[in-house]
Amino acid sequence: MVLYNSAVSGNCYKVRLLFAHLGLEYETVDVSVVERSNRAELLGELNPGLRVPTLVLDDGRPLAESNAILWYFGDGTQYVPDDAYERAQVLQWQFFEQYSHEPHIAVARFWKTYSGRPEQFEKQRERLLAGGYAALDGMERRLAGREFLVGERYSLADISLYAYTHVADEGEFDLEPYPAIRAWLERVAAQPGHVAIDA
Q1: Looking at the whole model, is its pTM more than 0.85?
Q2: pLDDT at 33 over 90
Q3: pLDDT above 90: residue 38
């Protein structure tokens, strides 16, 4: 398999993290999250959105969108519950990650730390921080008194939300007021096969 990947992208990290848990082998093609001039040439036949991660399976079929890739490989493993309601809850948290969490926390992190144009962060700072803290508030409420986001075990929901939450400080988010999230981050990092985002 070939993963079109950015080392700093949390969306790409989700895929690398699940692959590490599952012991899957793959090759990577590095793609810049800043310089995008060659995206159409590189990904145009594989992913209409021209985004990473994009995965090419062993049989040549392409698959895009981080959470879709997680489901393709995670379904039927310990990382996806058998119970229909809990499976739907995993999806619920993955949709939350894409619609409520990532557009604020990941975008703040990108503009502030990786874009080379931190002034773009300053222009959006108030909106991005407000939205990101609202997402963190929701996670904190969910994780209070719980080990993981869904059921009693680590799942794709945790992988999806860990990716950008654990580096939220790079977008100027302070996790000190979130004890349940901080304890959960430690539990996720202690899972067998865990790899760091910069591994």
Answers
A1: yes
A2: no
A3: no
